[in-house]
Fold this sequence. Notes:
By secondary structure, the protein is mostly helical. Helices cover 65% and strands 0% of the residues. The longest helix has 24 residues, at 3-26.
Amino acid sequence: xxxxxxxALAVALVVVVFLLLLALRRGRPRDLVAPDRPAGDGQxxxxxxxxxxxxxxxxxxxxxxxxxxxxxxxxxxxxxxxGGTWSPGPPAPGKGVDDAVRAEAARLxxxxxxxxxxxxxxxxxxxxxxxxxxxxxxx
Length: 139
């Protein structure tokens, strides 16, 4: 093999390795510092994160604390940043479901009786049909 071909192969190899490393690096998070954990008053922590420009972390903390959907949590964070107040409202579906009810619903669901599982959850928790359906589908 001629020296020119060897050099061309070496250059091509270097370029391929460089492109692979660049592609892998793009998939990594840019900020490797762990986010702060909420301490004490949850709304104050969410507000502190949002005002510091850490909206994604604020939304994540709020979702963990309340069980809100992504859209609802984002809207709540926006309200807090704009100077408004926000209250969590009723607990998220599935919070406080008795272990026996959860087990019975899971048993029915895994036996292919999804509708009966939803009925069991609704009878024992007084959830709406939509909330009970989401809860059962999350089992």
